[in-house]
Write a structure and sequence with these properties.
homodimer, alpha/beta, 60s Ribosomal Protein L30, Chain: A, Alpha/beta knot, 2 domains, 9 helices, elongated
Chain lengths: ~240, ~240
């Protein structure tokens, strides 16, 4: 039986300010929760409609009705857990890094984190106006990848300037990414869904790259998550050869 | 003023059976509607909260309240239009073609249609259990690309067997797509979100390809839309060189 105040305390975590103050976040569904547990994330409380053997402490069996009250999903999915936010290690000036300049959609951010994980990118730098990676929608979209990708919210321009890695940015009018070879280390900057990379951040980009368009010229630009997929693949195929 | 029967007649188009019988579909928002008009799609009726100059016939000014009643969106977006489904040309056995085997999510299908448009793929073949491309959610996600990509719903295996183009399929255990060069013409088969390419369709695949994974091996597979983005880019970069 979950008390009213407990329900309130849990659902408050749907808001960033409470996640920030309490350093906690919500994950839902057996698959995402078990991925986070496997990755060694620290669990604060686990609510499940079935008895479970994974955890003993902080485990509470709940009814489907109770789960519905604490869930952020349209259709609650068997279990919900409250995790402690990981303490990020310091940013390391090496490897391949993705940087996001005001990416606002939680679904896009979640997909990008999952892509980083697939392509072995373990550092993601976000401008302070990028969506919060501990937003429940992002956590669901990452499918557990959040446990393996360190996300840093920083003043983006200053941070980019403080790093020695070469800085690439995705632009509609950049150099054709299929020409030449990308380095195995560097920073790939992706811009906002509607406006692309901002003027402020553009100033620190060293190489503007672009995915050539083969279809009609009236087409919308590629979605930021699909463009990130293609560009990360381009960086990695260079290593493969 | 829209009558109750008119509201019913419009909202019925949210269901596939009515779209099929009446050969009509819904598009919403000024951007998507103007893309479809520009592409020469035939409009049946246009409801707008503002006076418009684009169309004279079949144009109805509505209140925000009325628009809300006919909209499929959470937040109705200024205008809604009913278009006539285009009559597809016959499938042509040349060029680069994408084939979908039971892709169920409308958002994924919409993203894939937009990718086809970007990469100049103007024929998309779908198994009969793939999501309907005239579903309002797909139309919104395509951002008008549906006007430039012909989508064919067919018995997939028979159709693939009837074409002479080489057939590639995306598999977790396929040949590394970064090794070797892809041809400029062929069929790329992408499978269902949860199960990948079905056993039935696998029988007609001539080359199994795969996007190498660089991160942790516990990661989920790539989402079907992001995997399609990367593989289409691989087919096109071959032409570029």
């Amino acid at each position: 039986m979950i008390s009213k105040s407990e329900i309130k305390s849990i659902t408050q975590l749907q808001q960033k300010k409470y996640r920030d103050t309490r350093q906690l976040f919500i994950a839902e569904g057996p698959k995402v929760i078990s991925e986070l547990l496997l990755a060694g994330m620290e669990v604060e409380a686990h609510y499940d409609t079935a008895p479970t053997h994974i955890l003993k402490e902080n485990y509470y069996q709940v009814t489907a009705q109770e789960l519905k009250k604490i869930s952020c999903l349209k259709t609650a999915n068997k279990s919900l857990a409250i995790f402690r936010k990981p303490t990020s290690a310091a940013l390391v000036d090496s490897g391949l890094i993705v940087a996001l300049d005001a990416v606002r959609d939680p679904g896009n951010l979640g997909t990008i984190i999952r892509l980083c994980d697939w392509f072995g990118v373990n550092q993601l730098i976000c401008s302070e106006d990028t969506a919060d990676c501990f937003n429940p929608k992002v956590i669901q979209a990452t499918m557990g990848s959040i446990a393996r990708v360190a996300v840093h919210y920083v003043p983006l321009k200053d941070t980019l300037q403080s790093l020695s890695l070469p800085i690439f940015g995705a632009f509609m009018d950049g150099k054709n990414v299929y020409d030449g070879t990308l380095p195995s280390q560097g920073i790939l900057v992706m811009g906002n869904e509607a406006h692309g990379v901002s003027a402020e951040i553009s100033e620190v980009i060293q190489e503007r790259i672009s995915i050539p368009q083969f279809g009609s010229q009236t087409t919308e630009s590629l979605n930021v998550a699909t463009a990130t997929a293609i560009l990360l693949s381009e960086f990695r195929r260079a290593i493969e050869r």
